[in-house]
Amino acid sequence: MTRNILVVDDEHTSVELYSMILREHGYDRVIPCEDSRNAAGLIREHDIELVISDLMMPVMDGYDLLLKINEEHPDIAVIILTAQDKVETAVECMKIGAFDFITKPLDPERLLTAVEHAFTIRELKEEVNILSTERPDRELSHPGAFSEILTRSPKMKKIFAYMEAIIPSPKPLLITGESGTGKELIARAFHELANSGGDFVAINVSGLDDAVFSDSLFGHHNPDAAEGGDGRKGLIEQAGKGTLFLDEIGDLGMNSQIKLLRLLQEGEFFPLGSDTPVPCRARIVAATNANLKSRQESGDFRRDLYYRLIAHHIELPPLRDRTDDIPLLLDAFLAEALEKMGRPEVKAPPELYAMLKTYPFPGNVRELQGLMYDMVTASAPGSLDISVIRNYILLNRAGEDGDGSSELSELMDDEQYARGPGGMLLRKDKMPNMKDAEEFLYEQALERAGGNQSRAAKLLDVSQSTLSRWKQQFSPE
């Protein structure tokens, strides 16, 4: 994403200083101007998006330059730099349209904050312009792109409409949301919307060191054809005109952040071992469950990269904020689990829907999917043991609340159960020993498996020999 900044000041040292500060923080396309009369031509020539101008200059001062820019380029923000004794004039500049003013001596952080704010506002205006052409209640133009996302939620439908609206923009898309909300599904839907003919290429960048990140994305060039051909294409080239999906972007290392920033700025990259730039034709989509705003404020994530990534931003709602989708998702995941495990079709009882609607689902959609598989695994063919879900919810709520629920209290009122390994697992003051825990798990698995030893072993994810050993130990004939 190009960001061209024009710096106007009649003092050469000031122009050099401001340009250096900007370049050190990722703004590579800084155009110097030491004669304000040349500013208009440079704005047209370099497609300038932001002007930083001194107030006091000969021939044409900052005030007059601001008037000219407002008249000819009203979409360009202007930041005025002024001495302390000229603040009143700077305020007048604000009244006629300056974006901000900064007093000298210049505080670099103050300048960078103003610049970032100016670009953020510019991007928001561009986004509003895109969305203003869309009716919020309109039918989706490409509903097929979202066919893999099961939802009736108005919040999700708004996200779909937003995705359709931003498709023409070449800027990156950032998808945020809690773990399990379906960020990769949204990224794939966005890829389908683009219909660019390229591939969807995904990589989880969490924990990658810089060398692996660079080699994975950019590939490498081998100058010795006899030794290994022309090298290997990186993921960017593999995606072609498609989509490069960078998952867990919040955990990207600092050195890798710099390289990603350059890719977004320049739209090109250098394969390792090559000095020939390769254009990036892929659309960049990134996702994270981290709070990137907090990370950039704490210095763990580059501020300039953050502002480039949020050009287009989707925040996915957690499942607890779209509970109307639970029955739809439950039925789909239940049918999927039954089919994959070769079980006959079974309908979920109404009480199961009610039970799950009261659960907050910290793991979101992924957690619901896993629960359906657990329930099917623990149930006899042709039936559903919803106690699996009930016990799971009780255990998780006990962990969150510390005091449990009324159902848990009733369970713990059973003295025999409460004093046994099962009861100990629900308490915080005591733990069963390993032998008692194994015996409890063995008995529970056999009960849920209807006495079938093979099914019980699968439920516990242990070998048949381990289960046989437990049988001899706990149920000798």
TrEMBL record:
Domain Response regulatory: 4-119
Presence of keyword Ion transport: no
UniProt keyword terms in alphabetical order: ATP-binding, DNA-binding, Nucleotide-binding, Phosphoprotein, Transcription, Transcription regulation
A GO molecular-function descriptor: ATP binding
An individual GO BP term: regulation of DNA-templated transcription
UniProt-listed SUPFAM superfamilies: CheY-like, Homeodomain-like, P-loop containing nucleoside triphosphate hydrolases
Modified residues (4-aspartylphosphate): 54
One family name in Pfam for this protein: Response_reg
InterPro entries: AAA+_ATPase, AAA_lid_NorR, CheY-like_superfamily, Homeodomain-like_sf, HTH_Fis, P-loop_NTPase, Sig_transdc_resp-reg_receiver, Sigma_54_int
Keyword NADP part of the UniProt annotation: no
Domain of life per record: Bacteria
CDD domains: AAA
Domain annotation Sigma-54 factor interaction: ranges: 149-377
Protein name: Sigma-54 dependent DNA-binding response regulator
